[in-house]
Write a structure and sequence with these properties.
The complex is a heterodimer of chains A (250) and B (464). Chain A is of the alpha/beta class. Chain A is 30% helix and 28% strand. Chain A has a six-stranded mixed β-sheet. A four-stranded mixed β-sheet of chain A has the order 6-5-7-10. Chain A starts with a strand and ends in a 5-residue tail after the last helix. With 464 residues, chain B is an alpha/beta fold. Chain B folds into two domains: 309 residues, UDP-N-acetylmuramoyl-L-alanine:D-glutamate ligase, CATH 3.40.1190.10; 140 residues, Mur ligase, C-terminal domain (Protein-Tyrosine Phosphatase, Chain A). Chain B has 16 helices and 17 strands. Classes of the chains: A alpha/beta (250), B alpha/beta (464). Chains A and B meet through helix 1, helix 2, strand 8 and helix 6 of A and helix 7 and helix 13 of B.
């Protein structure tokens, strides 16, 4: 039987700012190399999401102006379906702006409150246009090793009591620059500020997502190892650069 | 007194840093001059008899400003200009102090025109200080999000700056870029548009790196009848708002590109000119068009414009050509997806067997976030590249990106810049052409090595 990963990419034209394309290319490549079929569906404004049609849902980052339009669409068109998908155990990966919008709410720099989907028990607030942005290389200690990436966000994210961060910050700012947490995990939903792109340089995390997504539908699943030498070199170089320079904010 | 001290200090610092070969000698002199006399820029700019011009935008500032300076000189005027890349306030201050006499005046002040390339985020401050008679906007792409924040933030800064311009100031805008064209709405003074009309140069669809695909007025997705590169093209809003690319008065009616250069026919209110340029790529056709549009707005005749374009030689690191160890080496700065896509398209247009060296650094001047390489269409090199050398402190990020473009068996990582250049030169056949594509700080490094090797033939081989 041919296995198939069905990926829904939400708002690819609006939420695509920090090389989010790399995440899609990575999922596709790591499936195809293992003979797993890969089916990509792009869902833009106004298009409905059917929770049972997908194994993995990805939403990337955007600028505030785009985020406002997406928040509106999430409230009117897709939010309920995303909550249903999360409840069914569909894997969700939300990066940066997408992560913020899948929390309970996001108060943007101008004070306006954008409603969130509520997949993650957290809320985000931007302290105002003059506030320092959290910008720089990040290294996070995660259950499966280290994660490397780049963060660039004005919003500070605060997790509800009992919600687990994705990892602990080794270098960088993370959710709020304060509590040492980065990202969030709620069931099979993963949120993070890391881009760069996230998945190509973190192949183990990419495989974890693919495996978790497919386990729901396939009992017998073997994740054959891939030649990750270039990936590991890029990962190691990123760890080195981030920890040697420490936290630099521009 | 203060002014004299500021000018003297800047001149002394410039002389010293050049003697010691510390950088290009513009940051420190400019900082000193501004520290001693905070009003140095507005006060000195006031003494330029022909006023000042600001050239800004994501891509093309340096080349466009350089083209424009050539035209200004051909028109018989004197120029005061900042050096390539020194485009913050201190770079402008340094340029003014360097050009001034110690008493604060300029020799031949009546015929002097300031032509300043200005960093995107510095436009409001530079416009307040210089009170320019013309501001030229080239384009707005996503670039160094870590430094400027979001593209929308830069657009908002520009709108505020344009709104506050003097009523006599002309704004010269790229009609093909929706977010630039939209600045016309807030300009208190005259507006001149330029654009490409030769639709044979375009394609039907937007590439992945496209940014401003949303209507500047209502936010709907724009429709394009032709896309030239990035989000530049013939656009219109399909909804009720009916905003569309404005008609331009300075237009490229014919654009012919090859690996050696560009041939342009430009129609402008005063007639028509055709210009051969030693620059490749559609983005350079836009730079030339922008310079011609600004020159036309300043009232220069077609004769001076054609002569000025003809006098052009490439700017520092912008398609500069060198001869190193029997190979022709061309250095092309690349710093964002739209720019690099166009570079790749240009160097692969001539066919196969292309030798390339890519240098990716992540210092502040490069942009510390290298995510942008994932938005570049490196697939363009597949089947075209013969050798591919990868270097810079983010070499492995680039190598991984190239793996995703199916180029992993070809690309070779050499983190050390000198070792990488040597490898790339060896991989290039004698009399062949090597394209070196660095980010900004890598360009400084690469250029110094190449210049040294060019003076001493085969030096790079001796160091093996």
């Amino acid at each position: 039987m041919t296995l198939k990963l069905r990926l829904a990419h939400l708002y690819p034209k609006l939420m695509n700012i920090y090389g989010d394309r790399g995440n899609i290319l990575c999922l596709e490549r790591r499936c195809r190399e293992r003979g797993i079929a890969f089916e990509l569906t792009e869902l833009g404004l106004g298009e409905k999401l059917k929770p049972k049609d997908y194994d993995l849902v990805f939403i990337g980052g955007a600028q505030d102006r785009e985020q406002r339009r997406v928040a509106e669409d999430l409230a009117k068109v897709k939010g309920k379906a995303i909550r249903e998908a999360a409840a069914k155990g569909v894997v969700i990966l939300a990066v940066c702006g997408g992560y913020q919008l899948l929390g309970r709410h996001y108060r943007i720099a101008e004070g306006e409150e954008l409603p969130g989907v509520g997949v993650f028990g957290l809320w985000t607030e931007h302290p105002g246009p003059g506030a320092k942005r959290f910008i720089g290389n990040v290294v996070v200690e995660w259950a499966g090793g280290t994660l490397v990436g780049f963060e660039n966000h004005g919003g500070r994210t605060h997790l509800d009591a009992g919600v687990e961060p994705l990892g602990r910050v080794v270098a960088g700012f993370g959710n709020n620059g304060d509590d040492g947490g980065e990202g969030a995990v709620c069931g099979n939903a993963y949120g993070t500020y890391l881009h760069g792109s996230l998945l190509p340089k973190n192949p183990r995390f990419a495989d974890h997502l693919i495996e978790t997504a497919l386990r729901r539908r396939y009992k017998y699943l073997e994740m054959a190892p891939l030649d990750d030498r270039v990936e590991e070199m890029a990962h190691a170089a990123a760890v080195r650069l981030a920890t040697r320079r420490g936290i630099i904010s521009v | 007194m203060r002014r004299i001290a500021a000018i003297a200090a800047a001149k002394a610092a410039a002389a010293l840093s050049q003697r010691l070969k510390v950088g290009g000698g513009t940051a420190l002199p400019g900082l000193l001059a501004e520290r001693i006399d905070p009003d140095i820029v507005p006060e000195m700019a006031r003494r330029l008899g022909q006023g000042s011009i600001i050239v800004t935008g994501t891509n093309g500032k340096t080349t466009t400003a350089r083209l424009l300076r050539g035209i200004v000189r051909a028109a018989g005027l004197g120029v005061v200009a900042n050096r390539a890349g020194s485009n913050l306030m201190r770079g402008i201050a340094a340029a003014l102090a360097e050009a001034a006499r110690l008493d604060g005046g300029f020799a031949g002040a009546k015929r002097r025109l300031g032509v300043f390339e200005v960093d995107e985020a510095t436009v409001p401050e530079a416009a307040r200080a210089l009170k320019p008679r013309l501001v030229l906007f080239t384009n707005l792409f996503r670039d160094q999000l870590d430094r400027y924040g979001e593209v929308e933030h830069v657009a908002a800064l520009w709108r505020d700056a344009v709104r506050q311009l003097d009523r006599s100031a002309t704004v010269v805008l790229n009609a093909d870029d929706p977010s630039i064209a939209g600045l016309a709405q807030v300009s208190p003074g005259p507006v001149l548009f330029y654009g490409v009309e030769d639709t044979s140069r375009g394609s039907g669809g937007l590439e992945h790196a496209a940014d401003a695909r949303w209507c500047p007025s209502c936010g709907s997705e724009l429709a394009y009848s032709t896309v030239f590169y990035g989000h530049l093209g013939h656009w219109s809003c399909p909804t009720h708002c009916r905003v569309a690319r404005p008609s331009a008065s300075v237009v490229a009616t014919r654009v012919e590109l090859d690996a050696e250069g560009t041939s342009l026919a430009i129609a402008l209110p005063g007639g028509e000119i055709s210009a051969p340029l030693p620059l490749t790529g559609l983005y350079n056709a836009y730079n030339a068009l922008a310079a011609v549009a600004a020159a036309s707005a300043l009232g220069f005749g077609t004769g001076a414009i054609a002569r000025g374009l003809g006098s052009f030689t490439a700017a520092f690191g912008r398609q500069e050509r060198m001869n190193v160890g029997g190979r022709r080496v061309q250095v092309i700065l690349a710093k964002n997806p739209a720019g690099l896509n166009e570079v790749l398209r240009t160097i692969t247009a001539g066919g196969a067997d292309v030798d390339v060296a890519l240098f990716l650094n992540d210092d502040i001047a490069d942009g510390r976030d290298v995510s942008w390489i994932w938005d570049v269409d490196f697939d363009l090199l597949a089947g075209k590249a013969r050798s591919l050398t990868v270097s810079g402190n983010r070499a492995w990020d680039m190598a991984l990106r190239l793996k995703y473009a199916g180029l992993d068996s070809l690309s070779q990582v050499e983190e050390d810049a000198a070792a990488a250049l040597r490898r790339a030169l060896r991989a290039t056949p004698e009399d062949g052409q090597l394209y070196v594509i660095p980010t900004y700080t890598a360009m400084l490094q690469v250029r110094e090595l190449l210049a040294r090797w060019a003076r001493r033939p085969a030096f790079w081989e001796a160091e093996k």
